[in-house]
Amino acid sequence: MKRRVVITGVGVISPVGNDKETFWNSLLEGKSGIKPVTSFDVTDYPTKIAGEVTDFDPEQYMDKKEIRRTDRFVQFGLAAAKMAVEDSKLEITAENAERVGVYIGSGIGGLSTWEDQHSVLLEKGPRRVSPFFIPMLIANMASGAVSIQFGAKGPTSSAITACATGTNAIGDALRLIQFDHADAMIAGGAEATIRPMAFAGFCSAKAMSTRNDEPEKASRPFDQGRDGFVMGEGAGVVILEELEFAKKRGANILAEVIGYGMSADAFHITSPAPEGDGAARCMRNALKDAGIAPEEVDYINAHGTSTDLGDIAETQAIKAVFGEHAYKLAVSSTKSMTGHLLGATGGIEAIASAYALRDQILPPTINLENPDPECDLDYVPNKARKADVNIVLSNTFGFGGHNATIILKRYEA
Known about the structure:
Elements: E1 5-13, H1 20-28, E2 35-36, E3 49-50, H2 64-68, H3 72-88, E4 100-105, H4 111-124, H5 133-137, H6 141-150, E5 156-157, H7 165-178, E6 184-191, H8 196-204, E7 234-242, H9 243-248, E8 255-264, H10 277-290, E9 299-301, H11 308-322, E10 330-332, H12 335-338, H13 345-359, E11 361-362, E12 385-386, E13 391-398, E14 402-409
Parallel strand pairs: 4-5, 4-6, 9-10, 9-13
Antiparallel strand pairs: 1-7, 1-8, 2-3, 6-7, 8-14, 11-12, 13-14
Protein backbone atom coordinates (compact mmCIF):
# COMPACT_ATOMS: atom_id res chain seq x y z
CA MET A 1 0.00 0.00 0.00
CA LYS A 2 1.37 3.38 -1.00
CA ARG A 3 1.25 5.95 1.76
CA ARG A 4 -0.59 9.22 1.04
CA VAL A 5 1.63 12.27 0.49
CA VAL A 6 0.72 15.94 0.84
CA ILE A 7 2.30 19.34 0.24
CA THR A 8 2.58 21.43 3.40
CA GLY A 9 4.85 24.31 2.38
CA VAL A 10 6.35 26.07 -0.64
CA GLY A 11 9.18 28.45 -1.44
CA VAL A 12 9.78 30.40 -4.65
CA ILE A 13 12.50 32.49 -6.26
CA SER A 14 11.34 33.59 -9.72
CA PRO A 15 11.34 36.32 -12.37
CA VAL A 16 7.86 37.37 -11.16
CA GLY A 17 8.48 37.34 -7.43
CA ASN A 18 10.78 36.06 -4.71
CA ASP A 19 8.09 34.88 -2.33
CA LYS A 20 5.08 32.62 -2.76
CA GLU A 21 2.31 35.22 -2.73
CA THR A 22 4.06 37.74 -5.01
CA PHE A 23 4.78 34.91 -7.43
CA TRP A 24 1.18 33.66 -7.41
CA ASN A 25 -0.40 37.11 -7.59
CA SER A 26 1.85 38.00 -10.54
CA LEU A 27 0.65 34.91 -12.39
CA LEU A 28 -3.00 35.72 -11.72
CA GLU A 29 -2.45 39.29 -12.88
CA GLY A 30 -0.84 38.06 -16.10
CA LYS A 31 2.37 39.90 -15.24
CA SER A 32 5.43 39.07 -17.33
CA GLY A 33 8.88 38.85 -15.80
CA ILE A 34 10.66 39.00 -19.17
CA LYS A 35 12.94 42.03 -19.62
CA PRO A 36 16.22 43.02 -21.32
CA VAL A 37 19.19 41.15 -19.86
CA THR A 38 21.17 43.21 -17.36
CA SER A 39 23.65 40.69 -15.92
CA PHE A 40 26.03 40.71 -18.90
CA ASP A 41 26.56 42.48 -22.23
CA VAL A 42 24.23 40.97 -24.85
CA THR A 43 25.21 43.30 -27.70
CA ASP A 44 26.50 40.48 -29.88
CA TYR A 45 23.72 38.00 -29.07
CA PRO A 46 20.64 37.52 -31.26
CA THR A 47 18.55 37.15 -28.07
CA LYS A 48 18.79 40.01 -25.61
CA ILE A 49 15.95 39.21 -23.19
CA ALA A 50 15.34 36.80 -20.29
CA GLY A 51 13.43 36.23 -17.09
CA GLU A 52 16.06 37.39 -14.62
CA VAL A 53 15.59 37.21 -10.87
CA THR A 54 15.77 40.73 -9.47
CA ASP A 55 15.96 42.09 -5.92
CA PHE A 56 17.48 38.85 -4.66
CA ASP A 57 19.76 39.34 -1.66
CA PRO A 58 21.49 36.10 -0.68
CA GLU A 59 22.52 37.68 2.64
CA GLN A 60 18.91 37.21 3.76
CA TYR A 61 19.50 33.46 3.66
CA MET A 62 23.21 32.84 4.34
CA ASP A 63 26.31 34.59 5.62
CA LYS A 64 28.89 36.31 3.40
CA LYS A 65 31.43 33.51 3.73
CA GLU A 66 28.89 30.95 2.57
CA ILE A 67 27.82 33.19 -0.31
CA ARG A 68 31.39 33.33 -1.62
CA ARG A 69 31.50 29.54 -1.61
CA THR A 70 28.21 28.84 -3.37
CA ASP A 71 26.98 29.22 -6.92
CA ARG A 72 23.92 31.33 -7.64
CA PHE A 73 21.76 28.26 -8.31
CA VAL A 74 22.57 26.91 -4.85
CA GLN A 75 21.72 30.29 -3.31
CA PHE A 76 18.35 30.19 -5.08
CA GLY A 77 17.69 26.62 -3.96
CA LEU A 78 18.66 27.30 -0.35
CA ALA A 79 16.51 30.45 -0.25
CA ALA A 80 13.47 28.63 -1.65
CA ALA A 81 14.01 25.71 0.74
CA LYS A 82 14.20 28.03 3.75
CA MET A 83 10.95 29.68 2.71
CA ALA A 84 9.29 26.30 2.19
CA VAL A 85 10.38 24.93 5.57
CA GLU A 86 9.20 28.12 7.27
CA ASP A 87 5.89 27.97 5.37
CA SER A 88 5.32 24.37 6.44
CA LYS A 89 6.42 24.97 10.05
CA LEU A 90 8.30 21.68 9.81
CA GLU A 91 10.78 21.26 12.65
CA ILE A 92 13.70 18.97 11.89
CA THR A 93 14.96 17.55 15.16
CA ALA A 94 17.36 14.91 16.40
CA GLU A 95 14.36 12.59 16.70
CA ASN A 96 13.09 12.92 13.11
CA ALA A 97 16.17 14.02 11.14
CA GLU A 98 16.85 10.57 9.68
CA ARG A 99 13.30 10.49 8.29
CA VAL A 100 13.56 13.87 6.54
CA GLY A 101 15.36 14.02 3.19
CA VAL A 102 16.18 16.42 0.38
CA TYR A 103 15.72 16.04 -3.38
CA ILE A 104 16.53 19.26 -5.22
CA GLY A 105 17.73 19.04 -8.81
CA SER A 106 19.36 21.33 -11.36
CA GLY A 107 19.45 20.84 -15.09
CA ILE A 108 22.85 22.46 -15.59
CA GLY A 109 24.27 23.32 -12.16
CA GLY A 110 26.96 25.90 -11.44
CA LEU A 111 27.45 27.44 -14.86
CA SER A 112 28.48 30.84 -13.50
CA THR A 113 31.17 29.17 -11.39
CA TRP A 114 32.42 27.24 -14.42
CA GLU A 115 32.65 30.38 -16.55
CA ASP A 116 34.30 32.49 -13.87
CA GLN A 117 36.87 29.89 -12.88
CA HIS A 118 37.69 29.06 -16.50
CA SER A 119 38.60 32.73 -16.95
CA VAL A 120 40.79 32.54 -13.85
CA LEU A 121 42.54 29.45 -15.25
CA LEU A 122 43.30 31.13 -18.57
CA GLU A 123 44.31 34.49 -17.14
CA LYS A 124 46.08 33.55 -13.89
CA GLY A 125 46.92 29.86 -14.16
CA PRO A 126 45.83 26.65 -12.45
CA ARG A 127 47.09 27.57 -8.98
CA ARG A 128 44.58 30.42 -8.79
CA VAL A 129 41.50 28.30 -9.47
CA SER A 130 39.31 28.26 -6.37
CA PRO A 131 39.55 25.20 -4.10
CA PHE A 132 35.76 25.45 -3.94
CA PHE A 133 35.40 25.20 -7.72
CA ILE A 134 34.13 21.61 -7.77
CA PRO A 135 31.69 21.79 -4.83
CA MET A 136 30.36 25.09 -6.20
CA LEU A 137 29.89 23.62 -9.66
CA ILE A 138 28.29 20.20 -9.19
CA ALA A 139 24.54 19.99 -9.77
CA ASN A 140 23.75 18.04 -6.58
CA MET A 141 25.04 20.81 -4.33
CA ALA A 142 21.68 22.53 -3.80
CA SER A 143 20.49 19.30 -2.16
CA GLY A 144 23.70 19.05 -0.19
CA ALA A 145 23.56 22.63 1.05
CA VAL A 146 19.92 22.31 2.12
CA SER A 147 20.59 19.02 3.91
CA ILE A 148 23.48 20.62 5.82
CA GLN A 149 21.50 23.77 6.60
CA PHE A 150 18.60 21.90 8.19
CA GLY A 151 20.35 18.79 9.46
CA ALA A 152 18.14 16.60 7.27
CA LYS A 153 19.79 13.16 7.40
CA GLY A 154 17.25 11.15 5.39
CA PRO A 155 17.45 10.16 1.70
CA THR A 156 19.18 13.00 -0.14
CA SER A 157 19.76 13.10 -3.89
CA SER A 158 19.13 15.22 -6.98
CA ALA A 159 17.62 14.75 -10.41
CA ILE A 160 19.44 15.96 -13.54
CA THR A 161 17.00 15.55 -16.42
CA ALA A 162 17.20 18.92 -18.19
CA CYS A 163 13.82 20.68 -18.14
CA ALA A 164 12.11 17.70 -16.47
CA THR A 165 14.43 17.98 -13.44
CA GLY A 166 12.13 19.75 -10.97
CA THR A 167 9.23 17.40 -11.62
CA ASN A 168 11.45 14.33 -11.43
CA ALA A 169 12.84 15.56 -8.12
CA ILE A 170 9.35 15.99 -6.65
CA GLY A 171 8.17 12.68 -8.11
CA ASP A 172 11.19 10.75 -6.86
CA ALA A 173 10.76 12.34 -3.41
CA LEU A 174 7.11 11.31 -3.53
CA ARG A 175 8.14 7.69 -4.08
CA LEU A 176 10.53 7.76 -1.12
CA ILE A 177 7.70 8.80 1.19
CA GLN A 178 5.09 6.52 -0.38
CA PHE A 179 7.25 3.47 0.21
CA ASP A 180 8.33 4.41 3.73
CA HIS A 181 11.93 5.50 3.13
CA ALA A 182 11.14 8.95 4.56
CA ASP A 183 8.33 10.84 6.31
CA ALA A 184 9.12 14.24 4.80
CA MET A 185 11.13 15.54 1.84
CA ILE A 186 12.33 18.98 0.78
CA ALA A 187 12.01 18.75 -3.00
CA GLY A 188 12.16 20.82 -6.18
CA GLY A 189 14.56 22.45 -8.62
CA ALA A 190 17.01 25.36 -8.88
CA GLU A 191 18.66 26.96 -11.90
CA ALA A 192 20.80 30.03 -12.67
CA THR A 193 22.01 29.88 -16.27
CA ILE A 194 21.40 33.38 -17.62
CA ARG A 195 25.08 33.51 -18.52
CA PRO A 196 27.09 34.14 -21.72
CA MET A 197 27.82 30.47 -22.46
CA ALA A 198 24.24 29.28 -22.05
CA PHE A 199 22.93 32.18 -24.09
CA ALA A 200 25.48 31.54 -26.83
CA GLY A 201 24.59 27.86 -26.96
CA PHE A 202 20.83 28.34 -27.10
CA CYS A 203 21.20 31.18 -29.61
CA SER A 204 23.36 29.00 -31.85
CA ALA A 205 20.66 26.35 -31.67
CA LYS A 206 18.11 29.00 -32.65
CA ALA A 207 15.99 27.88 -29.71
CA MET A 208 15.28 31.24 -28.06
CA SER A 209 12.95 34.06 -29.00
CA THR A 210 14.45 37.14 -30.65
CA ARG A 211 11.44 39.36 -29.99
CA ASN A 212 13.80 41.78 -28.26
CA ASP A 213 11.74 44.90 -28.90
CA GLU A 214 8.77 43.48 -26.97
CA PRO A 215 10.24 41.40 -24.12
CA GLU A 216 6.99 40.96 -22.22
CA LYS A 217 5.35 39.53 -25.34
CA ALA A 218 8.21 37.22 -26.31
CA SER A 219 7.04 34.11 -24.47
CA ARG A 220 3.77 33.21 -26.22
CA PRO A 221 2.97 29.49 -25.94
CA PHE A 222 0.49 28.09 -28.47
CA ASP A 223 0.40 31.40 -30.37
CA GLN A 224 1.03 31.43 -34.09
CA GLY A 225 3.64 34.14 -33.65
CA ARG A 226 5.86 32.26 -31.21
CA ASP A 227 9.52 32.10 -32.19
CA GLY A 228 11.24 30.22 -29.36
CA PHE A 229 11.46 29.99 -25.59
CA VAL A 230 12.67 32.68 -23.20
CA MET A 231 15.19 31.65 -20.56
CA GLY A 232 14.38 32.22 -16.91
CA GLU A 233 16.07 31.46 -13.60
CA GLY A 234 15.10 30.77 -10.00
CA ALA A 235 13.97 27.95 -7.75
CA GLY A 236 10.79 26.22 -6.66
CA VAL A 237 10.79 23.98 -3.59
CA VAL A 238 7.94 22.13 -1.85
CA ILE A 239 7.70 20.26 1.43
CA LEU A 240 6.23 16.79 0.94
CA GLU A 241 5.01 14.86 3.98
CA GLU A 242 3.35 11.56 4.66
CA LEU A 243 -0.25 12.39 5.48
CA GLU A 244 -0.37 11.05 9.04
CA PHE A 245 3.02 12.62 9.82
CA ALA A 246 1.64 15.98 8.66
CA LYS A 247 -1.67 15.61 10.48
CA LYS A 248 0.00 14.57 13.73
CA ARG A 249 1.89 17.85 13.90
CA GLY A 250 -1.11 19.90 12.77
CA ALA A 251 0.38 20.97 9.45
CA ASN A 252 -1.58 23.08 6.99
CA ILE A 253 -2.15 20.89 3.92
CA LEU A 254 -2.04 22.66 0.58
CA ALA A 255 -2.67 19.71 -1.78
CA GLU A 256 -2.22 15.97 -2.12
CA VAL A 257 0.21 14.46 -4.64
CA ILE A 258 -1.51 11.41 -6.11
CA GLY A 259 0.38 10.49 -9.28
CA TYR A 260 3.78 10.49 -10.95
CA GLY A 261 4.75 9.33 -14.43
CA MET A 262 7.92 9.21 -16.49
CA SER A 263 8.82 8.19 -20.02
CA ALA A 264 11.51 8.56 -22.66
CA ASP A 265 10.98 9.78 -26.21
CA ALA A 266 13.93 7.65 -27.42
CA PHE A 267 13.85 9.83 -30.51
CA HIS A 268 16.07 12.94 -30.63
CA ILE A 269 18.30 14.93 -28.28
CA THR A 270 16.26 18.15 -28.59
CA SER A 271 13.12 17.61 -30.70
CA PRO A 272 9.99 15.98 -29.26
CA ALA A 273 8.82 12.63 -30.56
CA PRO A 274 6.30 12.76 -33.43
CA GLU A 275 2.73 13.48 -32.30
CA GLY A 276 3.95 13.85 -28.73
CA ASP A 277 4.28 10.09 -28.25
CA GLY A 278 6.61 10.27 -25.25
CA ALA A 279 4.61 13.00 -23.55
CA ALA A 280 1.40 11.01 -24.04
CA ARG A 281 2.90 7.88 -22.49
CA CYS A 282 4.19 9.93 -19.59
CA MET A 283 0.75 11.37 -18.82
CA ARG A 284 -0.83 7.93 -19.12
CA ASN A 285 1.71 6.56 -16.65
CA ALA A 286 0.87 9.33 -14.19
CA LEU A 287 -2.86 8.71 -14.54
CA LYS A 288 -2.36 4.98 -13.99
CA ASP A 289 -0.22 5.66 -10.95
CA ALA A 290 -2.89 7.98 -9.54
CA GLY A 291 -5.62 5.43 -10.25
CA ILE A 292 -7.85 7.98 -11.95
CA ALA A 293 -9.58 8.26 -15.33
CA PRO A 294 -8.53 10.96 -17.80
CA GLU A 295 -11.97 12.56 -17.45
CA GLU A 296 -11.23 13.36 -13.80
CA VAL A 297 -8.49 15.88 -14.66
CA ASP A 298 -9.72 19.48 -14.59
CA TYR A 299 -6.59 21.45 -15.46
CA ILE A 300 -3.16 20.90 -17.01
CA ASN A 301 -0.22 23.17 -16.23
CA ALA A 302 1.44 22.61 -19.59
CA HIS A 303 5.12 22.42 -20.40
CA GLY A 304 4.20 25.01 -23.05
CA THR A 305 7.61 26.48 -23.82
CA SER A 306 6.63 28.71 -26.78
CA THR A 307 8.58 26.62 -29.29
CA ASP A 308 7.11 25.64 -32.63
CA LEU A 309 7.45 21.86 -32.37
CA GLY A 310 7.07 21.56 -28.61
CA ASP A 311 3.70 23.28 -28.27
CA ILE A 312 2.19 21.28 -31.12
CA ALA A 313 3.56 17.98 -29.79
CA GLU A 314 2.17 18.63 -26.31
CA THR A 315 -1.22 19.54 -27.74
CA GLN A 316 -1.24 16.34 -29.78
CA ALA A 317 -0.25 14.34 -26.69
CA ILE A 318 -3.07 15.83 -24.62
CA LYS A 319 -5.58 14.94 -27.33
CA ALA A 320 -4.21 11.40 -27.56
CA VAL A 321 -4.52 10.84 -23.82
CA PHE A 322 -7.75 12.68 -23.05
CA GLY A 323 -9.75 12.23 -26.26
CA GLU A 324 -12.88 14.39 -26.31
CA HIS A 325 -12.21 15.46 -22.73
CA ALA A 326 -9.17 17.36 -24.03
CA TYR A 327 -11.59 20.02 -25.26
CA LYS A 328 -13.35 20.23 -21.89
CA LEU A 329 -10.38 20.61 -19.58
CA ALA A 330 -8.34 23.80 -19.18
CA VAL A 331 -4.66 24.03 -20.16
CA SER A 332 -2.30 26.94 -19.53
CA SER A 333 1.39 27.72 -19.63
CA THR A 334 2.75 29.88 -16.84
CA LYS A 335 6.01 30.05 -18.83
CA SER A 336 4.28 32.80 -20.80
CA MET A 337 5.00 34.94 -17.72
CA THR A 338 8.04 33.40 -16.02
CA GLY A 339 9.96 32.23 -19.05
CA HIS A 340 11.49 28.76 -18.95
CA LEU A 341 13.43 28.09 -15.75
CA LEU A 342 14.91 24.88 -17.16
CA GLY A 343 15.65 22.57 -14.21
CA ALA A 344 13.67 24.75 -11.80
CA THR A 345 10.52 24.90 -13.89
CA GLY A 346 8.92 21.76 -12.45
CA GLY A 347 9.27 23.17 -8.96
CA ILE A 348 7.59 26.50 -9.58
CA GLU A 349 4.90 24.94 -11.75
CA ALA A 350 4.05 22.39 -9.06
CA ILE A 351 3.52 25.34 -6.74
CA ALA A 352 1.33 27.12 -9.30
CA SER A 353 -0.69 23.91 -9.67
CA ALA A 354 -1.14 23.57 -5.90
CA TYR A 355 -2.24 27.19 -5.62
CA ALA A 356 -4.76 26.69 -8.42
CA LEU A 357 -6.31 23.98 -6.24
CA ARG A 358 -6.14 26.14 -3.13
CA ASP A 359 -7.77 29.22 -4.66
CA GLN A 360 -9.91 27.55 -7.32
CA ILE A 361 -8.52 29.80 -10.01
CA LEU A 362 -6.47 29.05 -13.13
CA PRO A 363 -3.44 31.12 -14.16
CA PRO A 364 -3.59 32.29 -17.78
CA THR A 365 -1.49 31.82 -20.88
CA ILE A 366 -0.67 35.44 -21.71
CA ASN A 367 0.23 36.72 -25.19
CA LEU A 368 -2.14 34.23 -26.80
CA GLU A 369 -3.41 36.59 -29.49
CA ASN A 370 -3.50 34.42 -32.62
CA PRO A 371 -3.77 30.75 -31.66
CA ASP A 372 -1.88 28.29 -33.84
CA PRO A 373 -4.52 26.26 -35.75
CA GLU A 374 -2.71 23.10 -34.60
CA CYS A 375 -3.05 24.24 -30.99
CA ASP A 376 -6.82 24.28 -30.57
CA LEU A 377 -7.46 23.54 -26.89
CA ASP A 378 -8.65 25.85 -24.10
CA TYR A 379 -5.40 27.51 -23.03
CA VAL A 380 -7.02 30.00 -20.59
CA PRO A 381 -6.01 32.91 -22.82
CA ASN A 382 -4.71 36.13 -21.29
CA LYS A 383 -6.81 36.29 -18.11
CA ALA A 384 -7.00 34.14 -14.99
CA ARG A 385 -10.22 32.21 -14.61
CA LYS A 386 -12.26 31.04 -11.64
CA ALA A 387 -12.97 27.33 -11.95
CA ASP A 388 -14.04 24.27 -10.02
CA VAL A 389 -10.71 22.47 -9.78
CA ASN A 390 -10.23 19.12 -8.08
CA ILE A 391 -7.37 17.45 -9.97
CA VAL A 392 -4.42 19.14 -11.69
CA LEU A 393 -1.75 17.58 -13.91
CA SER A 394 1.64 19.27 -14.45
CA ASN A 395 3.93 18.39 -17.37
CA THR A 396 7.65 18.94 -17.91
CA PHE A 397 9.68 17.59 -20.83
CA GLY A 398 13.46 17.87 -21.24
CA PHE A 399 16.25 17.63 -23.78
CA GLY A 400 17.35 14.04 -24.23
CA GLY A 401 13.71 12.95 -24.41
CA HIS A 402 13.06 13.01 -20.65
CA ASN A 403 9.37 13.37 -19.73
CA ALA A 404 7.88 13.79 -16.25
CA THR A 405 4.33 14.40 -15.01
CA ILE A 406 2.88 14.81 -11.55
CA ILE A 407 -0.77 14.91 -10.53
CA LEU A 408 -2.11 16.92 -7.60
CA LYS A 409 -5.50 16.68 -5.97
CA ARG A 410 -7.47 18.98 -3.73
CA TYR A 411 -6.94 17.58 -0.26
CA GLU A 412 -9.80 15.71 1.36
CA ALA A 413 -9.42 14.24 4.85
